[in-house]
Design a protein that fits this description.
heterodimer, A: alpha+beta, nine-stranded mixed sheet, globular, B: alpha+beta, four-stranded antiparallel sheet, about 50% helix
Chain lengths: ~300, ~700
């Protein structure tokens, strides 16, 4: 079998988009807020709840302030991309579908060693847990494969199958690149070839400095408190909107505040101002918000509640 | 478990009627660490169920691969035997109500009952026949029950269903076969129908195929690139790895747990060898090994000449047209990235260590909570320093050096390498100590102060290491005792039993005379010292019992004064155990017990204590005089021996009492009309008793 190998970072993204589109997923756009992983996108967190079928795929820019290395580490970034697929209920051939997606980006199944290695997933901030694997290609972790069992404290019925591809790492592997900053972002044969470093080296430096040394911790702390208060106050509103007379439960705006709190916590963590004991307490506070949002979402139509 | 097949098979089934069962539960990848136990559970549950249903069998075996749990059971009859049971009912003249109840319970009507004569008159007898059931039906029901209630430590749902399994379950083979042919056992679990079909290797032979029985199944799997037996896969991997290592002048660093795990990750093992890039060869070997094992599941190969780890073995799950070249290249690249990280941590850590002798790390530990009621790691370090200094004289260590060591042994907890590889704590500390120019004794204490971790771990024998290792554990125990966090039942979240066992082994194997109560006071003066000592005594009993010293002998030793000196307790218990093995010991024990009983009874009856000095002038017989003499000679010897903790001498001295004691009981009647003589004899026995009790509390010895 001859395999058409991807030529650039964006080539891989486009192929994944085309592949999952051809398998019937709604190809969504990134969520327009700072998140730590594709799982935080409401298209995953909230939509994995309730009984309504769902199939979505999207790229999600993800931020992990503590992982910043000023662009020097060959594969660690404070801002990177995840490709996320969520299908509910998980189809019986999800493993096969996944393997074909690797073929679509140019991994020749005849030459590589693909393995499913146990890795149960747990997100203490989202009150979520699932069972699955990390998928290895020749010893390299290229994806996370998870069957959601619980999200926001709710058991998942039906169960969603979630695939998360770490795009930079996967692309570096497919394209045989040793340092992420050297990776061709667009087609290297084009008039203006751009590498990953052309686009992101400077931002990695800028954010690393801000994340680690400059971010105003008092302000971040205040914003954390504000987000928490706002999330709670949104969810404490009457279900019936007094203006329209309609039942409008504002699970999504509330969840935005939960995402905000989570990211602010990550920033505070990177600034090193959260002690080990406090850490658990902060995570608990974000989880309480996530649970409350999940409680609200399952009362909505998208959450499977008959109106 | 008794295998009942041989009893029954001979008389109610003919051999050619026997069938063999094949079960395959085919799923998505089962975590490697769960496979072996799951296969055994499947076997146990199925066999127990078959036996409970009255079926017999001649043999069973279970296997596992990443995607399969497989069971074969041989020599099953076609059906379970009819069971005929006689049940005795009420007497014929019993009230109607009793008869009705009996009929209800047997499910028969009155006409079906027989009447028999009994001692108390005629009674009803019911003959209840339970007809045999077909093996097919029994297996179908049983397998469904097993699948629905399988004891996975963690299971999941998938899709829209409610069935639980470790990962989605895709297919079931349930096949009974004999010489005539094979038959699928009709079975459907949540839409999953049993069949005779499976498929081979996920990538090398994915097409489904049918099987006719276990032999056919195993052979066809092999043709389709699946080795069914995990033991066979392990053997293949090990042999091939050793061969490849040998061929290039290396040896495989043995790692049985990794081998077991890797065997559970592949259906078709292909062993590939690669080299570690020279720039990483100066990393500590433990770092190389841990990084390769934890992250990549690679085996380490040690160069026979240089003694360094220079190559690795990875086990792929398939053959490829390029002989694994692409796979190996990929693995090598991942390893380089991992080792770059490790090298980065190592170099950063070395810089910190060299800069200020690890003070930076110790300072950051002030922010790390040890336990919310017990302060930070830095608080704990301060306690360890003071306690290590106090304990040093008992271990022959220089107190100042022990203190200095204790101040840095936990420093590596703040290092990047230990953050990445927690298993390397202590060991990294020793490297960083050396780098920062601290004394070798201190470096060694870093590495060894957690030891011993388990019952078979080596115990440190260098004085400074022993002092800090003791302090580490005694601080932990007294601290948790003070906040009343003691182990209960199976709950021991802070591993306090292990800590106590560590102290016991440190003391005994280094032969330390360490008064624990003093050590407890130095660590946490307010802790309940007696209670904690009791905990130690319990652990000591478990420890010595494993060395075949009886619990009552240990009790006899623990009852002695100064029993917080575990070395003393252990030596006394050993000497006593050896003594009681001898004829003299056994007889003296009986003599002691007899004397003890006589004196106790007399004291109870007479309401006095016979503890006044017996006087030889009232002795009437040679036997009494002999005992007087023997006690007179031996008492000071025993006293001295005990003081010198020379328990062998004490026992020898006790042994020489045996003949006079035996002689006394043979030739002397304690009770006599002459009260003076009687009292004198009781006092003599009491004296003999107290001489024995000075050695060990023999009253606690059983038998």
């Amino acid at each position: 079998m001859t395999v058409d190998v991807s030529k650039s970072f964006q080539d891989i993204i486009l192929r994944l988009q085309a592949y999952w589109s051809s398998k019937g997923c709604a190809v969504l756009q990134p969520y327009d807020m700072e998140v730590g992983a594709g799982t935080f996108h409401p298209a995953t967190t909230l939509r994995s709840l309730g009984s309504r079928p769902w199939a979505a795929a999207y790229v999600q820019p993800s931020r992990r302030p503590t992982d910043g290395r000023y662009g020097e580490n060959p594969n660690r970034l404070q801002h990177y991309y995840q490709y996320q697929v969520l299908i509910k209920p998980s189809p019986p051939d999800l493993q096969e579908l996944y393997l074909r997606s690797l073929e679509a980006i140019g991994i020749d199944m005849e030459l590589h060693d693909i393995r499913f290695v146990e890795d149960d997933w747990e997100s203490p901030t989202l009150g979520a847990a699932g069972l699955g694997w990390e998928v290895w290609c020749d010893g390299m972790e290229v994806s996370q494969f998870t069957y959601f069992q619980q999200v926001g404290g709710h058991d998942c019925h039906p169960v969603s199958g979630e695939l998360t591809y770490g795009l930079e790492r996967l692309a570096m592997y497919v394209l045989s690149i040793d340092h992420v900053m050297d990776m061709p972002f667009n087609n290297p044969q084009t008039l203006i070839p751009l590498t990953y470093g052309d686009i992101f080296l400077q931002t990695e430096q800028e954010y690393a400095r801000w994340n680690f040394d400059v971010a105003n911790t008092e302000m971040l702390l205040r914003h954390f408190e504000d987000a928490e208060i706002e999330c709670n106050s949104i969810l404490d509103q009457e279900q019936i909107d007094p203006k329209t007379g309609k039942k409008i439960i504002m699970s999504h705006p509330a969840y935005d505040q939960c995402i905000k709190a989570s990211h602010l916590f990550n920033l505070l963590d990177a600034r090193g101002v959260i002690s080990v004991t406090e850490r658990q307490a902060y995570i608990g506070r974000v989880r309480a918000l996530a649970k409350k949002c999940a409680d609200a979402f399952v009362l909505t139509e998208a959450g499977g509640k008959l109106q | 478990m008794v295998n009942p097949c041989f009893l029954d098979a001979l008389y109610h089934q003919k051999v050619y009627d026997m069938s063999d069962l094949l079960i395959e539960l085919f799923s998505e990848e089962i975590p490697a660490r769960l496979q072996l136990k799951a296969a055994e559970d499947l076997k146990k549950l199925m066999i127990n169920g078959l036996v409970d249903a009255g079926l017999t069998y001649s043999g069973a075996a279970a296997f596992s691969t990443p995607r399969r749990l497989v069971l074969t059971v041989r020599g099953l009859p076609d059906e379970s035997p009819t069971v005929r049971e006689e049940r005795k009912g009420p007497r014929v003249d019993a009230p109607e109500k009793a008869l009705k109840g009996f009929l209800r319970s047997t499910g028969l009507d009155r006409a079906a009952l027989e009447v028999r004569d009994g001692k108390k008159g005629p009674f009803y007898l019911a003959i209840v026949q339970t007809p045999g059931r077909s093996t097919t039906t029994i297996i179908g029901e049983l397998l469904e029950k097993i699948v629905r209630t399988f004891p996975w430590p963690k299971s999941m749902r998938w899709g829209a269903g409610s069935l639980r399994w470790v990962r989605p379950l895709h297919a079931i083979i349930c096949l009974l076969s004999n010489e005539v042919g094979a038959q699928v056992v009709p079975l459907e679990i949540d839409g999953l129908k049993a069949s005779d079909q499976t498929s081979g290797h996920r990538f090398m032979a994915p097409k489904p195929f049918s099987v006719t029985g276990f032999e056919d199944y195993e052979a066809k799997l092999k043709r389709n690139y699946v080795i069914l037996d995990p033991a066979e896969r392990s053997k293949m991997i090990l042999q091939e790895a050793e061969n490849q290592a040998f061929a290039c002048g290396h040896e495989l660093v043995s790692d049985p747990s990794l081998l077991a795990e890797v065997s559970g990750l592949v259906e078709w093992p292909v062993v590939l060898m690669g080299s570690i890039e020279p720039v990483f060869l100066n990393l500590p070997p433990e770092v190389l090994r841990t990084s390769m094992k934890e992250h990549q599941k690679f085996f380490s190969l040690r160069h026979l000449k240089t003694g360094r780890i220079e190559r690795f073995i990875t086990v792929a799950n398939r053959e490829t047209a390029d002989q694994g070249e692409t796979i190996l290249r990929g693995n090598q690249k991942v390893l380089s990235a991992r080792l770059s990280d490790a090298k980065f941590f190592w170099e950063n850590d070395l810089r910190v260590a060299k800069a200020d002798g690890m003070a930076t790390w110790v300072a950051t530990l002030a922010d790390v909570t040890f336990h919310n009621k017990l302060g930070s790691e830095a608080d704990r370090i301060a306690r360890l320093a003071s306690l290590s200094q106090d304990l040093a004289p008992f271990t022959n260590a220089d107190p100042a050096l022990a203190k200095e060591a204790a101040l840095v042994v936990k420093a590596d907890l703040a290092s990047e390498m230990v953050y990445e590889f927690p298993d390397l704590q202590g060991l990294m500390g020793s490297y960083y100590c050396k780098a920062s120019g601290l004394a070798d004794e201190i470096a060694q204490a870093c590495e060894l102060h957690y030891a011993p971790m388990g019952p078979s771990d080596a115990v440190p024998d260098a004085p400074v290491s022993i002092a800090v290792a003791l302090a580490d554990k005694i601080d932990k125990l007294t601290a948790f005792w003070t906040i009343d966090e003691k182990p209960t039942g199976s709950k021991d979240p802070f591993a306090l039993r292990r800590a106590a066992l560590g102290v016991i082994r440190l003391v005994l194997e280094n032969e330390l005379a360490l008064p624990l109560l003093t050590a407890f006071s130095k660590a946490y003066p307010n802790t309940d010292k007696e209670n904690l000592l009791g905990f130690f005594h319990d652990r000591l009993k478990v420890f010595l019992r494993d060395q075949d010293i009886r619990h009552d002998i240990i009790d006899a030793a623990i009852a002695m004064e100064g029993s917080d000196d575990l070395m003393m307790v252990s030596r006394l218990a050993r000497a006593l155990a050896a003594f009681l093995e001898t004829v003299d010991g056994e007889n003296l024990l009986q003599g002691f017990k007899r004397a003890n009983n006589i004196v106790m009874q007399a004291e109870q009856n007479d309401g006095v204590e016979y503890s006044y000095g017996a006087d030889i002038k009232f002795a009437e017989t040679d036997e009494e005089r002999a005992l007087f003499k023997a006690l007179e000679t031996n008492e000071p010897v025993i006293k001295k021996a005990i003081q010198a903790q020379d328990f062998t001498l004490a026992m020898k001295s006790l042994a020489s009492l045996r003949a006079p004691v035996d002689g006394f009981f043979e030739g002397v009647q304690v009770n006599t009309d002459k009260q003076v003589i009687r009292r004198n004899r009781l006092n003599l026995l009491s004296k003999m008793r107290s001489v024995c009790l000075a050695v060990a509390d023999l009253s606690r010895i059983e038998g």
